[in-house]
Amino acid sequence: MELETEMILHPFSVHLDPVSGIMDDADNHIERYLSKVADIFYDKNAADGMLKENGDRLVYEVYEKKIPQRSGELQFCSSITHPGKIGDEYFMTKGHFHVRRDRAEIYFGIRGSGMILMEKENGEHAEETLSPGSVVYVPGYFAHRSVNTGAEPFIFLAVYPGDSGHDYGAIEVNGFNRIVVLKNGRPEIIEKKNLG
Q1: Is the CATH number of domain 16-194 2.60.120.10?
Q2: Secondary structure (DSSP) of 95-163
Q3: What's residue 2's pLDDT?
Q4: Residue 3: what pLDDT?
Q5: Which residues of 147-184 are buried (b: 16+ CB within 10 A; e: fewer)?
Q6: What is the pLDDT of residues 65-112, one digit of tens each?
């Protein structure tokens, strides 16, 4: 397999702008607009209403370098979740498991404020806040999703093993059991089963 033999032969560096989150010399720029991620939000009517009234909005984006997807390498990316809400629910990423479920991940906060929601397939869950200079460790077996709870872009650097892979399908089928909403002037985590 090409990925098994591909190697990085020389050290390299990139610049990650702490204000914009843009990674210079990125090999891949992923943009997720509301029209493509509307189904991840609890209030589908509010998502449809925002699309009709405000048009398509950029919810989040990711800048990546091309690193071999194999054991021994480290993948890394900058993630930018833009500020906004669908109804009372904050903008967030789709979230994913790793294909290799035992692989962990590190998030280093650069700008803005937000939460990292984590959930295992058995329902066990956790959450951590992330802000500039803080680090969140996501253990293996936890799906993870970032949520922007502030008024500016929520930017962090993510680092994970090269052979982790991304499994978005499990989240598309089962979703997360909890959401983050604005309640009484602050972010609050709510179990979906407790919503009307």
Answers
A1: yes
A2: -BB-SSTT--EEEEEEES-EEEEEE-TTS-EEEEEE-TT-EEEE-TT-EEEEEE-SSS-EEEEEEEETT
A3: 43
A4: 44
A5: bbbeeebbbbbbebbbbbbeeeeebeeebbebbbbeee
A6: 999 999 999 999 999 999 999 999 999 999 999 999 999 999 999 999
**Per-residue CA distances from 63 to 21, 44, 122 (Å):** 8, 28, 31
Q: In the beta sheet, which residues pair with residue 116?
A: 128, 146
- The answer to whether 190 and 127 have CB atoms below 8 angstroms apart is no
pLDDT in tens, 130-157: 999 999 999 999 999 999 999 999 999 9
Domain extent listing, the chain: 16-194
Each residue of 17-56: pLDDT tens digit?
A: 999 999 999 999 999 999 999 999 999 999 999 999 988 9
Token digits of residue 33:
């607009």
Q: Which structure tokens are listed for 70?
A: 């194999």
Query: What single letter denotes the amino acid at residue 124?
Result: E
Q: Is the dihedral of CA 37, 40, 43, 45 positive or negative?
A: positive
Beta bridge partners, 62, equal 30, 79
Q: What tokens appear for 140 in the block?
A: 């293996």
